[in-house]
Every structure is written in C-alpha cells, then in structure tokens.
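so my prof wants the structure for this chain in the tokens format not the other one, which i didnt know existed until like an hour ago. anyway here's the sequence
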Amino acid sequence: MINKTTADVPDGPVGSLPPSAQAELEGVAWEELPHFCTGRHNLPNTPDILTGVLAADPARRVRAVGDLYRLLLNQERVFPATAPAALVLARLLDDPRTLAEGRWERRAGRRPLRAELLNWLASFADIARLDVEDGVGTAQDLAAARAARPVLHDRIADFCENDDPQVRDAALAATACSWPTLPSPRPYPGTRPPSARSWP
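here's what i got, hopefully its the right format
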C-alpha cells in the first residue's frame, strides 16, 4: 500500500543508518535473537527490517514498518529480537529521513515516519508492562523489554513538544507507556490496557 513521500532517502546497507543506530545494530548478535518467523523463506531478518525503515524506496519503508508489527510484535507479543530492535529504532527518531510522510498499514491518512515509529515504540512499551501470564512473551523476553524502557523513555521524551502534532501525540503516548516505574496492569483482573497501536 502507499507511498509518495516528502523526501528522497538514500538507500543502502547498514552504513546508511545514523552512526549511533549503526553502532547499536552492530553490537547485537542477531543470529542468536529470533523474531516471530526468523529463518523462514523470503522473510527478512531483523537487521534487514531495521535498515529498511530508512530505505529510499517508499514501498520498502512501508513493508519494513509492517514487518516491525508482523515479526517483532506479532499478536502483541515480544520475542528475543524485539527489545534490541526497539533500542535501534529509538536511535533513528532524530534522523531527518523520518520526516518523510507516507500511508502506513495500520493507520488512515498520511503521517510522518517518525510518528509511526513512535507509535510502534508505544506498542512495545505497553506490552512490556504485562506479565508472562498475559501471553505476551517469555519471562526472559519481557525482562529485556522492561530493561529497555528507561532508555526508550529518555529518547522519546525529546519529541513530546515537537511542532508536528502527529509526532507530538505519538511521543506523548509512547512516553506514558515507557515510563520506567509504571506498574504492571495486573491489579485489573481480566483486563488489559488499551493497545498503544490505537493511539495517535
């Protein structure tokens, strides 16, 4: 689906990422950290998804963002690759290429890539507040997700006063979910917090 953007984005391999994101990506043993369908034919691995987010081809960007949900947060679960992927994505937020607009699979209308990435981070942080009993991941994967929240919170907070209302609203939602001391929603039996995916 999609796709004209407001900016041309240079395509390329890992080296096309901002230096901090590239260092974060290269510091992870991704082969040891599968996503939902790692190794299946014709499905991208996590580094390919992350580098695709800033691809020059708008269709590839849309596909990469869709894969963030399909393969790294499938059915609102976290996987071994999810937390380290979130830390890489947080390093992309201030890259000017995330100002490119597009139509993304999970929301109507056009919006900046930056807002869409913030919404994904909100979904990730929201899921990290739950427990193994909620069926959202293994204890180890949830622990990694929770450990990432303070770093994400600090990165996301920079966009809470952004001039773009879509970016600002997405950042506020993501900041609320990623607050490091937020308790698990377990005190509300039989319910789950609203999915951050439905937030602006």
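also thought this was worth mentioning. Confidence is low (pLDDT under 50) at residues 1-15, 182-200.
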